[in-house]
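$ run holo --ligand "pyridoxal-5'-phosphate" --emit tokens
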Amino acid sequence: MARINDNFLKLPGSYLFSEIQKRTGAFLAKNPGAELLYLGVGDVSEPLPPTVIRALRDAVDEMGTKQGFHGYGPEYGYPFLLDAISENEYRALGIDIGSDEIVICDGAKSDAGNIQEIFSADSVIAVTDPVYPVYVDSNVMAGRTGVFSGGRWSELIYLPMVRENDYTPQLPEKRPDLIYLCSPNNPTGAAMKKRDLKIWVDYALENDAVILYDAAYKAFISSDACHSIYEVEGARRCAIEFGSFSKTAGFTGTRCSWTVVPKDILGKDASGDAVPLLDLWRRRQATKFNGTPYIVQKAAMAIYTEQGKNEVKALVSHYMANARRIRETMDALGVRCSGGVDAPYIWFPVPGGNSWAFFDRLLGECQVVGTPGAGFGPSGEGYFRLTAFGTPEATREACARIQKVL
Ligand code: PLP
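-- output --
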């Protein structure tokens, strides 16, 4: 038998969503016909915008012709999409990110999960807590996190984001090599302002650390929070940024994302010589990934047309109207929540402090399914996440039930 990577055995199962399914299934078995409302998962409910569908159809037609057929594409993405991202996501904000500093991929999950491969096996990792689990699990698989005990990894640096610090991570006592930040944040919904991000950029520059910045939800920002870490001076020398079309334009099942690795950001090899991280990331992708489909990149580019922009704006407003409704419901109940302004997530402390007990209560008394905070890390216990990605009807009904019962 082949020897396996034992680190995979350290992963504590996919406890969160399987446990949610188990509890929901048991409830339905006891209450057949109960109409459950799902405000738990982070998937979208609206179809792809019409402009995207048109671009997809056109690209499919092209692929059926001799002249328009595309086989393997350019390794880092088609220039039309790279240019559109550089122009619309960065240069339009006055940020200097060139097309040749962007690499197209099939999802921010892949990018955020794979990026750790270009760093040394003994890198020290810091994550915000609660956290999008991919950052942690990908480092568990790589053997960087030590032993899992009492819900914590022994070698991971946790940066708590709780009500007491306004869901803003504080600088760690011990120096990490890699720092994962996500803003707007899943699950807390909080978004970092320039002054908060500057603290991290300055820290990373002073401590020779790299920030891995997940901006998958930036399209939902309505406050003056940063849309990109490169709004902060110096970030080009210490930060890698991930972007995604999933939540912005309904690409969760279509799959397209990008990663920015500025030319200025360097790592060092075993002899201490500087190496551009962009070269490593490009090499990694060229070796292990053969590109996002042409038709998908064409579809993604369509969101940067005038009509595409309007449709995406409408999509974001659609979900944020749900978010507003959930927030207003919580406000009316006197629950102080975060999120729902710059992100489609609403995060709040639960009465009694036990997130699974609150899950059961919401399921039993309101037939509403949410996500217990305990599933996002040790500091998530005591909190709960509702998402704005449901339909307006389900969201309205869920809010009415919650208001009536709680
Ligand atoms: N990053 C964060 C913070 C997320 O919450 C998610 C999905 O829920 C992703 C990345 C994954 O995005 P994608 O669909 O582009 O893989």
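-- notes --
The pocket of pyridoxal-5'-phosphate is lined by residues 42, 107-109, 112, 132, 182, 186, 214, 216, 244, 246, 252, 257 (CB under 6 Å).
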